[in-house]
Specification:
This protein is an alpha/beta fold. The chain contains twelve helices and eight strands. The mean pLDDT is 97.
Length: 257
Amino acid sequence: MRVPVIAGNWKMNKTILEAESLVKEMLPELLSVKGVERVVCPPFVALASVAALLRDTDIKLGAQNLFWEEKGAYTGEVSPLMLQGLCHDVIIGHSERRQYFGETDETVNRKIKAALSHGLRPIVCVGENLDQNEAGETESFVSLQIEKGMAGLSVAQVRGMIIAYEPIWAIGTGKPATGVGANHIIKTAIREVIGRLFGLETAAAIRIQYGGSVKPDNIVEFMSQPEIDGALVGGASLKASDFVSIVRLSAQAKGLC
């Protein structure tokens, strides 16, 4: 069985003190839930402080982005070398990065390779917008994102990463996809494409999350689906009780507690 993984993407929220307070509030209950991998992804400025609080626990720390070069004249960027040894995970290709900062499948691919070469586990985001969804282009669009994003990777590298299917029209809108609908896209446009590119064993092993308006009151719908192995949680990860509930309910939905 694939171990479920719930990751909280805090986006551009929480000062250092607020980040420390949030982790301290959720930590005791998060530690009590077994069978589910838990990841928190605060802003860059809070990574070191949160890392100190998570030391000696099994809760992992993730960054929200990285640049593909180790160093150089790239003002404002954060390199994989800077994250190495500090973080376990890094979110790559989130739709907001693609929309607001011009990221493409090609730059996502470069970032994935940079993360892997520095021992960081990528959480790679894919997903379609509303127009593509309504035009029936979801499967072809997401499949192409997978093909281009994973270009040049080895089987071992792909097995070690996480993919998050986040339909753009569902992110922050309060209008999540249905569990059945998300499960179908994950199966046909992601898992089957990975199987074609990297083999059926890899497709069966890789963990794929759903993201997009995930909340305590809908997480069971998604986690009850056979192809969904976790969630990339946005707004609900900013409230300790909500994030803990999502983790706990995920464990229950997968029969782990």
